[in-house]
Design brief:
The protein is α+β, with helices and mostly antiparallel strands and 354 residues long. The chain is built from eight helices and eight strands.
């Protein structure tokens, strides 16, 4: 907390106001626990809000880290220590540009609370964000601008089917590596912040996402790569639920993480996967209809759906979980549990709410 004091002054018969002098070295100490410490580094910037009026903001500059990491105590003034949690205290000072913005308040105590800390986007950080945006456009472009359009047909007419697949695979690997590398190097710039209340919902939604991805990868499907010849066969297993199980699962995974991760880099990264996966279902349908012809495609499309369970709810199909096979269910659930348990040690972020 930071408290400012001043002197009362009345001018021109107006109301009495509390006037502050120059603010040079007033400091604020903020404490970060283990869920937020990864955002803070020496030299970072921060914002402080006026308690009672969060619309008033002032930038803070990092001064130093306090030498001791302290146990976390209850916020109810109880002296009981939470032995499993430690706090790193950082001292900040008001940035010079904020001195003129500190308001003159009438008979008010000015106290502020540290509400956001983030890395200062340096010139190199701005370049990395630009690189992430370009990687996003490249990855979306090759999947939606080429793979599902007539441009693909023209490329195949020139280079052949195998030449196109080899070139597209190389472009995909380049785009994927570029996207992941730029995301990992991007500075942390807060948008809406990490949502703790969303984590229980995310844990629930990730189970159907894992089922769709794993079962979809292991199930024969006319919409999968090089399996369009199966279009004349009746839909079975997970294809009864949706004819694009893998892409639907990837889209659900990406959307869950897009909502839960409130920073700029995560927005671009997970929005890319959401767009490619969900728009890719429509793109693949158009490609299959164009290449196979309406007479071959429409019967299969009529008994299935893009939206999970839509065809079943409409009475065009029925769900038979036994067709999926017990081994696919088991692998999918095991993958979900491993992902849940390995999220914190591998990625450094716990999926469980604090």
């Amino acid at each position: 907390m930071c408290k400012l004091s001043g002197r009362a002054e009345r001018r021109g018969g107006g109301p009495e106001r509390l006037v502050f002098g120059p603010i040079v070295a007033l400091v604020e100490r903020g404490a970060e626990d283990e869920t937020e410490i990864w955002r803070v580094c020496a030299g970072h910037t921060a914002l402080t809000r006026l308690r009672g009026n969060p619309e008033i903001l002032a930038p803070l500059s990092f001064v130093r880290f306090e030498p001791y990491v302290l146990p976390k105590r209850s916020l109810t003034a109880d002296t009981t220590e939470q032995v499993g949690t430690r706090l790193l205290r950082a001292t900040h000072e008001f940035a010079r540009r904020s001195e003129q913005g500190v308001p003159r308040l009438r008979r008010a105590k000015l106290s502020t609370k540290l509400t956001a800390a983030y890395h200062r986007p340096s010139h190199s950080g701005e370049c990395i964000v630009l690189s992430l945006i370009l990687a996003t456009l490249f990855f979306i472009g090759i999947h939606l601008g080429i793979a599902g359009t007539q441009m693909r047909d023209r490329v195949i007419a020139i280079s052949g089917e195998n030449g196109y697949r080899a070139g597209f695979a190389i472009a995909t690997l380049i785009g994927l590596g570029w996207l992941v590398a730029a995301y990992n190097r991007a500075p942390y710039l807060v948008t809406w912040g990490m949502l703790e209340w969303w984590k229980p919902i995310a844990i629930i939604l990730m189970l159907p996402a894992a089922l769709l991805v794993v079962i979809g990868l292991t199930t024969p499907n006319p919409t999968a790569v090089a399996q369009e010849g199966r279009v004349g066969q009746p839909a079975q297993g997970i294809v009864r639920v949706t004819r694009h199980p893998f892409l639907t699962g990837v889209g659900l995974w990406a959307l869950v993480h897009l909502i839960g991760n409130g920073d700029l880099a995560s927005f671009f990264f997970f929005a890319t996967w959401t767009i490619v996966a969900l728009a890719g279902t429509v793109s693949i349908d158009a490609k299959r209809r164009r290449l196979l012809g309406a007479a071959a495609w429409e019967p299969f499309a009529g008994q299935t759906s893009i939206v999970p369970f839509a065809a079943i709810a409409a009475g065009r199909n029925r769900f038979n979980p036994r067709e999926i096979g017990l081994w696919r269910w088991a692998i999918a659930v095991l993958a979900y549990l491993l992902m849940l348990g390995g999220h914190a040690p591998i990625l450094g972020v716990s999926p469980f709410p604090v």
